[in-house]
Amino acid sequence: MTDNKKRGRSKAINPRSKQYRIRLTDDECEALKTIAKKHNLSISKLIRSRIIEGEYQMTINEYQKAAYRTANQSLTDSQQLQNGLIGLNGESGECIDILKKHLFQGHDLDKYHIAKELGDVAWYLAVSAQALGFDLETILQMNVEKLKARYPHGFDAGHSQHRSSGDI
């Protein structure tokens, strides 16, 4: 029978490097070793690569890099931005059209089709952010900070209707 005591020392998360120590049971250590061996990785590389039980979890910035690889590289940043913003509107319009057909024309709500179109929205968002010189994680963090300032205690209709000056 394995001793299931926690190993290692806890250490506060370092927000700059995003490095931290965790305590694992012997069983958890063995599970990590098994997965690492399966993927021919060290445990530290396994953790950094986010492969858990055979699945890879892509970060938002990794998505942006992968998406931008398929963008038309002959366009200038200004043209990439124009293409991105026009594309965002076009793909959003496709989502709305699916909803319109469901609400007013008797179609079933095709969630899978909407999900595919939302993927296209994400692609154009990634390209637009890249053209502006921002990574997606920064864009999303900026949005969360803006919403926290606007709605400090969660959504409130009054705060929505009466925004502070400069709140965009």
UniProtKB/TrEMBL annotation:
User: What is the protein's name according to its record?
Assistant: Nucleoside triphosphate pyrophosphohydrolase family protein
Q: Give the NTP pyrophosphohydrolase MazG-like domain ranges.
A: 86-155
UniProt cross-references to Pfam families, sorted A to Z: MazG (PF03819), NikA-like (PF21983)
Q: Which domain of life is it from?
A: Bacteria
Database matches in PANTHER family = DCTP PYROPHOSPHATASE 1
